[in-house]
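re: ur question from yesterday

yeah so i grabbed the chain u mentioned. its 83 aa long if i counted rite. heres the sequnce exactly as i have it in my notes:
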Amino acid sequence: MRIETELDELHTQRLRQLQQCWNRPLAEVIAKAIDYAWQSPGIDSASPLYLAFEEAELIGCIEDDPRLAGHYKQPLDYSDKCG
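ran it thru and got these structure tokens back, copy pasting raw so excuse formatting
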């Protein structure tokens, strides 16, 4: 595919830096960037961190006192606390 585009100064500079760092032709640099974007989770996808927390059952909800935010420390048992 032939692509013709005009980049702003910032992205032109970044693209040139990538090309220099990777020491690859421009077509390979762009292909690599496309591959990276393709593998990255999209906006609608859950992040890997969220998925890991969900898998470990660290994300969920409970039904409790609606005023819990104001007095959440009261029902805690500190008898086993160290320090």
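noticed a couple things. The first helix runs from residue 9 to 22. also The mean pLDDT is 83.
anyway ttyl
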